[in-house]
Amino acid sequence: MSVNIRENINAIIKGIQENKILEIFEKYYADDVVMYEKGDSTNRVGKDQNRKAEEAFVNNATIHEAKLLKVLVDGNNTAYEMYMDFTYGGHNIKKTQWAIQQWNNNGLVVKEEFF
Protein backbone atom coordinates (compact mmCIF):
# COMPACT_ATOMS: atom_id res chain seq x y z
CA MET A 1 0.00 0.00 0.00
CA SER A 2 1.33 3.39 -0.98
CA VAL A 3 0.99 6.23 1.52
CA ASN A 4 -0.03 9.58 0.09
CA ILE A 5 0.86 12.26 2.64
CA ARG A 6 -0.80 15.00 0.57
CA GLU A 7 -4.12 13.12 0.60
CA ASN A 8 -3.79 12.51 4.35
CA ILE A 9 -3.11 16.17 5.24
CA ASN A 10 -6.00 17.23 3.00
CA ALA A 11 -8.24 14.75 4.86
CA ILE A 12 -7.15 16.23 8.20
CA ILE A 13 -7.91 19.77 7.00
CA LYS A 14 -11.30 18.70 5.64
CA GLY A 15 -12.06 16.95 8.93
CA ILE A 16 -11.31 20.13 10.88
CA GLN A 17 -13.53 22.14 8.54
CA GLU A 18 -16.35 19.59 8.93
CA ASN A 19 -15.96 19.52 12.73
CA LYS A 20 -14.77 15.89 12.74
CA ILE A 21 -11.64 16.54 14.78
CA LEU A 22 -11.83 13.42 16.95
CA GLU A 23 -12.46 11.14 13.98
CA ILE A 24 -9.46 12.43 12.06
CA PHE A 25 -7.32 12.30 15.20
CA GLU A 26 -8.07 8.58 15.61
CA LYS A 27 -7.40 7.82 11.95
CA TYR A 28 -4.31 9.90 11.17
CA TYR A 29 -2.31 10.22 14.40
CA ALA A 30 0.21 7.61 15.63
CA ASP A 31 0.11 6.05 19.11
CA ASP A 32 3.41 7.79 19.96
CA VAL A 33 2.43 11.23 18.63
CA VAL A 34 3.86 14.30 20.39
CA MET A 35 2.05 17.61 19.98
CA TYR A 36 3.41 21.06 20.81
CA GLU A 37 1.70 24.38 21.48
CA LYS A 38 4.25 27.13 20.89
CA GLY A 39 7.13 24.80 21.78
CA ASP A 40 5.53 23.20 24.85
CA SER A 41 4.59 19.49 24.83
CA THR A 42 3.48 19.33 28.50
CA ASN A 43 0.72 16.71 28.77
CA ARG A 44 0.85 16.15 24.99
CA VAL A 45 3.03 13.02 24.69
CA GLY A 46 1.34 9.90 23.32
CA LYS A 47 -2.05 9.39 21.74
CA ASP A 48 -3.94 8.96 25.03
CA GLN A 49 -2.80 12.32 26.44
CA ASN A 50 -3.38 14.06 23.13
CA ARG A 51 -6.84 12.52 22.80
CA LYS A 52 -7.76 14.10 26.15
CA ALA A 53 -6.58 17.50 24.91
CA GLU A 54 -8.48 17.12 21.63
CA GLU A 55 -11.63 16.01 23.47
CA ALA A 56 -11.35 19.02 25.81
CA PHE A 57 -11.21 21.34 22.79
CA VAL A 58 -14.09 19.63 20.96
CA ASN A 59 -16.28 19.55 24.07
CA ASN A 60 -15.76 23.27 24.78
CA ALA A 61 -15.53 24.78 21.29
CA THR A 62 -17.93 25.61 18.51
CA ILE A 63 -16.16 26.19 15.21
CA HIS A 64 -17.82 28.85 13.08
CA GLU A 65 -15.21 29.00 10.32
CA ALA A 66 -12.00 27.14 9.46
CA LYS A 67 -10.47 28.60 6.33
CA LEU A 68 -7.37 27.07 4.78
CA LEU A 69 -4.87 29.73 3.73
CA LYS A 70 -1.81 27.66 2.74
CA VAL A 71 -0.69 24.04 2.67
CA LEU A 72 2.85 22.73 2.12
CA VAL A 73 3.98 19.15 1.54
CA ASP A 74 7.63 18.06 1.42
CA GLY A 75 8.26 14.33 1.78
CA ASN A 76 7.09 13.24 5.24
CA ASN A 77 6.61 16.83 6.40
CA THR A 78 3.54 19.00 5.98
CA ALA A 79 2.32 22.37 7.18
CA TYR A 80 -0.83 24.38 6.82
CA GLU A 81 -1.95 27.85 7.79
CA MET A 82 -5.56 28.18 8.85
CA TYR A 83 -7.80 31.03 9.94
CA MET A 84 -10.24 29.92 12.61
CA ASP A 85 -13.25 31.63 14.11
CA PHE A 86 -14.63 29.69 17.07
CA THR A 87 -16.27 30.06 20.44
CA TYR A 88 -14.40 28.45 23.32
CA GLY A 89 -15.72 28.56 26.86
CA GLY A 90 -18.15 31.30 25.91
CA HIS A 91 -15.47 33.52 24.31
CA ASN A 92 -15.27 34.19 20.58
CA ILE A 93 -11.75 33.65 19.25
CA LYS A 94 -10.50 34.56 15.80
CA LYS A 95 -6.94 33.56 14.99
CA THR A 96 -4.62 32.39 12.29
CA GLN A 97 -2.21 29.60 13.11
CA TRP A 98 0.31 27.32 11.48
CA ALA A 99 0.28 23.59 12.15
CA ILE A 100 3.40 21.63 11.17
CA GLN A 101 3.37 17.84 10.97
CA GLN A 102 5.98 15.10 10.71
CA TRP A 103 4.65 11.78 9.36
CA ASN A 104 5.89 8.21 9.76
CA ASN A 105 6.17 5.79 6.84
CA ASN A 106 2.71 4.39 7.66
CA GLY A 107 1.10 7.75 6.89
CA LEU A 108 0.45 8.76 10.51
CA VAL A 109 1.37 12.00 12.25
CA VAL A 110 4.12 11.45 14.85
CA LYS A 111 4.79 15.12 15.65
CA GLU A 112 2.63 18.21 15.35
CA GLU A 113 3.46 21.77 16.34
CA PHE A 114 1.10 24.74 16.45
CA PHE A 115 2.26 28.35 16.11
From TrEMBL:
Domain SnoaL-like: residue ranges: 16-115
Stated name of the protein: SnoaL-like domain-containing protein
InterPro entries documented for this protein: NTF2-like_dom_sf, SnoaL_5
Organism: Heterostelium pallidum (strain ATCC 26659 / Pp 5 / PN500)
